[in-house]
C-alpha cells in the first residue's frame, strides 16, 4: 500500500511539471526586456550616481561616471565604488578616497580593504578574517562599505561587509549606502545621557554584516553591532568600550521556502586575542533557561576594575523557546554565548534576533590602536521530507555551524 501511495504522489508531481512548463513565466508573459550586461548580469538601476575606480563597474550599474568626472566642488550626493587592486598603489587615488570618506560620501570597496583601514588608522574598522561554509569562496572579493559622520570633533562611522557573490554584494552594498547617506540616515542618538560626573557612552561605530545568499538554502546571517566609547571616564590609564550585539538569523524557510529553520546561534567577543592588555569587564546575559525575556546590563562601576565613574547601559530581548548558555571564560577574557533555538517551534521558522553585550577595557596608550576579535555563527535544521517520512525516516537534518570572524580595531 505504501509503495502505491508513493508512486501516485510521484505521478502527480511529474504531471504538474508539464502543466507549469506550458505556461510562460511572468517576464515572458509581459514581454518585458531586462537589461543584461556582457557579463550576463542584470544592472543595478541606481538613482544615486556612482563614480568608480576600476574597469568592470559600469557592467553592474546603469548610472556610472569615471572618477575623472568628479568635480572638486561637486556636492551632489553620490557613491564611490573602488576596485582595491586599481587603487592600492596609487597615492592620488588613496587621497581621493580619503577626501570622499571625510566628506560623508559612502565608499564601497571590492577586495582588500586596506585603502580604508590604513588611511584611517585609529578609526573604527572591522576586517573579515575567517569565513566558514562558503565552498571555496574567494575572500579577496569580499565587498566592504564605509561612511562617516562628524560628531563633537570625532568621526562616527558605519561599515558594511558582505560575503555574497560580487554581483549580489554590490547590490546589497549600494542599497546600504543609499540608506545611510545624508539625509536618508536620519538622526540617530550619538550619546547616552551624561551623568552628573560628565561621563557618558559615546556612539562610535556600527558594523553591518550580511551573508546574503552565500549560505543558501539554509538561511541568512545579519549583524548590526553598535560600539560605544566611555567619555570623561576620569582615568588617564584606561579606555572602556561597550558592545551592543544585534545578531539576526533569517531561516531558509522564510527566505526561500526551503524548510531549513534556525537551530543555534553563536556569538563570541575575545578581548585579548590580539592585545594582551585587553580586559573583559562585564558581559550579559548569563545562562538563562525557561524565560521569555532576558535582560542585559553592562558598563563600569566606580572603584571596580579601575573604573573612576559608574555608567551603564541596559536593554532586553525575547527568548521564546530559546535556551541561552553562557560559555564565557574570564581567565581568557572571553565572552561567549550559545542560543539553543527550538527549530520545531515558531522561533525557528521565523526571523529571530539576539542582543548580548560586553564591556571591554584597554590600556590607554597614545598612538596605539586597540584590537579584539568577534565571531558570529548560526546553524540550521530541517525536518524529514515527505519522501523520507513515507519511507519511515523521521530524522531531522542539521547543517553544521556557519560563522564569520572579525578583527575589530578602535582608537
Task: Compose a concise summary of this entry.
With 411 residues, the chain is an alpha+beta fold. It has a single domain, classed as Leukocidin-like (Distorted Sandwich), CATH 2.70.240. The chain is 18% helix and 38% strand.
Structural overview:
With about 400 residues, the protein is of the alpha+beta class. The protein has one domain: Leukocidin-like. About 20% of the residues lie in helices and about 40% in strands. It is built from 9 helices and 22 strands. Strand 16 (about 320-325) and strand 17 form a beta hairpin. The longest helix has 20 residues, at about 1-20. The radius of gyration is 24 Å and the shape is flat. Mean pLDDT is about 85; it is low at about 1-40 and about 135-140.
Rg is 24 Å
CATH class: Mainly Beta
Tally of separate helices:
9
Q: Give the end-to-end Cα distance, rounded to a whole number of Å.
A: 71 Å
Contiguous uncertain segments of 5+ residues: 1-38, 136-140
Quaternary form: single chain
How would you characterize the largest beta sheet?
A: 13 strands, mixed
Number of domain modules: 1
Helix and strand composition category: alpha+beta
CATH topology: Leukocidin-like
Number of strands: 22
The helical percent reads: 10-25%
* Second CATH tier, the architecture: Distorted Sandwich
How large is the share of residues in beta strands? 35-45%
**What average pLDDT do the residues reach?**
84
Shape: flat
Amino acid at each position: 500500500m505504501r509503495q502505491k501511495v508513493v508512486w501516485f504522489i510521484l505521478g502527480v508531481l511529474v504531471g504538474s511539471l508539464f502543466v507549469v512548463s506550458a505556461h510562460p513565466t511572468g517576464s515572458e508573459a509581459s514581454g518585458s526586456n531586462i537589461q543584461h550586461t556582457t557579463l550576463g548580469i542584470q544592472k543595478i538601476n541606481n538613482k544615486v550616481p556612482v563614480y568608480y575606480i576600476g574597469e568592470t563597474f559600469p557592467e553592474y550599474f546603469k548610472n556610472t561616471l569615471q572618477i575623472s568626472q568628479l568635480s572638486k566642488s561637486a556636492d551632489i550626493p553620490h557613491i564611490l565604488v573602488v576596485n582595491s587592486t586599481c587603487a592600492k598603489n596609487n597615492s592620488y587615488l588613496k587621497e581621493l578616497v580619503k577626501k570622499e570618506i571625510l566628506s560623508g560620501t559612502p565608499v564601497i570597496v571590492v577586495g582588500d580593504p586596506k585603502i580604508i583601514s590604513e588611511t584611517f588608522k585609529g578609526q573604527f574598522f572591522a576586517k573579515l578574517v575567517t569565513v566558514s561554509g562558503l565552498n571555496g569562496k574567494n575572500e579577496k572579493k569580499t565587498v566592504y562599505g564605509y561612511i562617516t559622520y562628524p560628531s563633537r570633533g570625532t568621526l562616527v562611522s558605519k561599515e558594511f561587509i558582505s560575503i555574497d557573490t560580487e554581483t549580489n554584494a554590490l547590490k546589497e552594498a549600494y542599497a546600504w549606502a543609499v540608506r545611510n547617506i545624508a539625509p536618508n540616515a536620519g538622526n540617530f542618538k550619538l550619546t547616552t545621557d551624561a551623568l552628573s560626573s560628565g561621563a557618558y557612552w559615546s556612539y562610535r561605530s556600527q558594523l553591518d554584516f550580511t551573508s546574503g545568499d552565500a549560505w543558501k538554502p539554509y538561511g541568512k546571517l545579519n549583524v548590526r553591532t553598535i560600539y560605544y566609547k566611555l567619555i570623561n571616564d576620569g582615568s588617564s590609564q584606561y579606555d572602556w568600550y561597550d558592545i551592543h550585539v544585534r545578531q539576526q538569523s533569517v531561516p531558509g524557510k522564510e527566505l526561500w521556502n526551503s524548510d531549513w529553520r534556525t537551530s543555534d546561534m553563536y556569538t563570541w567577543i575575545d578581548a585579548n586575542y590580539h592585545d594582551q592588555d585587553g580586559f573583559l569587564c562585564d558581559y550579559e546575559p548569563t545562562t538563562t533557561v525557561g524565560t521569555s525575556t532576558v535582560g542585559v546590563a553592562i558598563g563600569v562601576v566606580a572603584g571596580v576594575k579601575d573604573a573612576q565613574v559608574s555608567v551603564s547601559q541596559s536593554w532586553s530581548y525575547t527568548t521564546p523557546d530559546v535556551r541561552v548558555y553562557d560559555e564565557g571564560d574570564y581567565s581568557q577574557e572571553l565572552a561567549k554565548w550559545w542560543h539553543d533555538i527550538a527549530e520545531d517551534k515558531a522561533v525557528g521558522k521565523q526571523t529571530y534576533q539576539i542582543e548580548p553585550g560586553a564591556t571591554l577595557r584597554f590600556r590607554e596608550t597614545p598612538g596605539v590602536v586597540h584590537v579584539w576579535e568577534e565571531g558570529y555563527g548560526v546553524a540550521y535544521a530541517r525536518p524529514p521530507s515527505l519522501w523520507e517520512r513515507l519511507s519511515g525516516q523521521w530524522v531531522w537534518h542539521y547543517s553544521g555551524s556557519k560563522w564569520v570572524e572579525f578583527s575589530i580595531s578602535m582608537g
